[in-house]
Amino acid sequence: MPAAEPRKARRAAAPTLSAALPQRVAFEAHANGDVFACCADFSVGLGNFGPEALAQARRLREGLPLASFSSGKRGVDREVDLLVRRLSRRGLVEFCLSDGSIAIEPQTPNYWPQTPQLRDADTLQLSRFAYFHRRGDALALESPRADALFRLRDPRIAGVLAMLTAPRRIEELRREPNFPGLTLLALLADCGILLRARGRRPEEDFEGLALWEFHDLLFHARCTAGRHANPVGAVYAHSGVVQPLPAARPSWPGEKIALSSYCEEDAAKASAFAKLLRDRHSARSFDAARPIALAELARFLDGAARLLWASEEKSGFDDGGMAARPYPTAGAANELELYLAVENCEGLARGFYHYDSALHALAAIDAPADAFEALLSGAVEAMGAAHAPQILIVIAARFGRVSWKYGSIAYSLILKDAGVLTQTLYLMATEMGLGGCAIGISNIELFAKLTGVADHSEGPVAQFALGRPAG
Ligand SMILES: Cc1cc2nc3c(=O)[nH]c(=O)nc-3n(C[C@H](O)[C@H](O)[C@H](O)COP(=O)(O)O)c2cc1C
User: Fold this and answer.
1) pLDDT tens across 21-73, in order?
2) In a 3-state reduction of DSSP, which class is residue 273?
3) 421 C-alpha vs ligand 1 centroid, how far in Å?
4) CA-283 nearest atom, ligand 1
5) Architecture of domain 269-312+319-467 in CATH?
6) HSE-up of residue 416 (Cα within 13 Å, Cβ side)
7) Which atom of ligand 1 is nearest to the CA of 280?
8) Which of 82, 353, 404, 435 lies at a 20 to 30 A Cα distance from 268?
9) In sequence order, what are the beta bridge partners of 286?
10) What angle do CA 247, 248, 251 make, to 5 degrees?
C-alpha cells in the first residue's frame, strides 16, 4: 500500500453565526400581518410583517444564518433583520455557532453579535469580571460588563478559555487541540469578556473600574435593571415550590419579659418624633390638580439632603476629605447624589435635574427625552400606579468615594447609606404633609443615558417618588 500523504495543516472554516428562537418563545401572527412573540406569561408586539418575511422568521426555530438576512438587499431580508433585532432588544432571541458549541443570549437591548478582527499576534486575557458558572445543565460564561451571556456546551472550550487567566497570543492558543476558533474569541472580545492586552495593565484597570471589586460590580449589575435579561421585581420564582416565611417571626420559646408597662401606650401622648415615625407611610398616587411647589421642594431638599459641612482635612490618606448631610453615610463619604425627574412641579419646568447640595441649587441636565419618559414609566410600573409621581428622585452613588477606602464592603455600605437616606426622605415628606414612596428597582443603563456618565462611575442605587398625595 502506498504511504499516506502527509496532511496539510488546514484552518477550519469559520462557523456560521445563526439567530434562533428559544423554546420558550413562540410567534403569533394575526391576519393583518401583526406579529407577536409569546412567552409563558406575556406577549410583545414586534410590528407588521409580510407573509414572506414571516415564513422566513418561522425558520428561526431551527436557526437562521445572520448572513442570510443581515446584509441582504431585498425588502424581505430587511424585514427579517428588523424582526430579529426587535426580538434581540427584548432578550427573546439567541445566537448560535453552527458547530453547536456556543449559544449566545443577549443581556442588553444594545447587543448584536460583532466579530472584531483578531490577528494571530494579538494577545488576549480574560477580564477579571468574567466568570463561569453552572446554569441548569449548561456552563455559562458571563460578566457584569458584557452585553451577552455565552452558554458553552463543550467543557473543553472552557478549558482553553481558562488558559487566558494569563495573557496569551492567539498563535499560542491555536496550538491547543481544543482551540475554539477565532469567531468565538472575537465575539468574547466584543463583549469585554476577553480583553486585548495592549500595555502592561489591562484596560479595565483604568477609568474608575480599578476601584470595583469583582463581587461588588456583579452584585450592582445584577440587582439593578439594564445590564442583564433576567426578570426583575416581584417574580415569585419560588411560589408553589417553597413555603413562604411568615411575615412576623414566630416567637422564641420560653418566658418573655413584657415591655408594654415601660412605655406610653396612649399613641396621642407619644413624642412628636415617635408620631412622625408612625405617620410615615407610602403614597403612590398624587394630586394632579395641586402639584408640589418649587418652594416646598426647596424646603424638602434643605431639610433632608443639603450639605452641612465638608472638610478638606485628610484622615492620614489622600482621601478627598469628608462631608455630611442631615443623614449619616459610612465614613462621612457623602457618596449619594440626588437627581430629580420633575413631572409636575409648580414653578419648575418638567425635566431632569441634579441637586447641588453644596450650593442648594438645581442644575438642569439636557437628558434625552426617550430616556426621561422611560425613567418615569419605570416608576409608574414599579409602584403599580396610574400616573407618574410629581417628582421622581433618583439616588445615585459616586461609587469610588466608598470603594477607594473600604474595598470589599463598599457596595454593601452604599446600599445601607441609601436605606438611611430613603427613610430620611420619607420622614421629611411626612413632616411636610407630602407623600412619598421608595422604589426598589433602578435601571443603570437608563441612568447612563440620562446623564452621559459611565455606569461604573456614578449610578442609581435607589429611587423615591415624591408629591402631594391624592385625597
Ligand atoms: C427598599 C424599599 C423598596 C421599595 N420598593 C417599592 C417599589 O418598588 N414599589 C412600591 O410600590 N413600593 C415599594 N416600597 C414601599 C413598600 O412597599 C412599603 O414601604 C411597604 O409596603 C410598607 O408600607 P408603608 O411604607 O406604607 O408603611 C419599597 C420600600 C422600601 C423600603
Assistant:
1) 999 899 999 999 999 999 877 889 999 999 999 999 999 999 999 998 887 77
2) helix
3) 14
4) 26
5) 3-Layer(aba) Sandwich (3.40)
6) 11
7) 27
8) 435
9) 469
10) 150
